[in-house]
Design brief:
By secondary structure, this protein is of the alpha+beta class. The chain is 15% helix and 11% strand.
Length: 73
């Protein structure tokens, strides 16, 4: 079961659907969570709030740990 993070929008409100990729969105976090949508979020789904994840070549382990900690408050 994934972490339940998010701002409280339901999957219905954001047209959550499969066949596209949440994992490429800037709001998606590992462990199947999102900073906008509540509930378990599949990396293989998408919603209307999808925004492309910016490419950042300089991310290291400390960056990913801080991002993980954000969803594990």
């Amino acid at each position: 079961m994934g972490i339940s993070a998010g701002a409280g929008l339901s999957k219905e409100e954001v047209n959550y659907r499969h066949y596209e990729k949440c994992q490429t969105c800037m709001h998606f976090y590992p462990q199947n969570s999102c900073d906008l949508v509540q509930g378990n979020i599949s990396s293989d789904a998408v919603c209307d709030r999808w925004e492309i994840k910016p490419k950042d070549e300089g991310k290291d382990a400390s960056f990913y740990k801080s991002e993980f900690d954000k969803v594990n408050k």
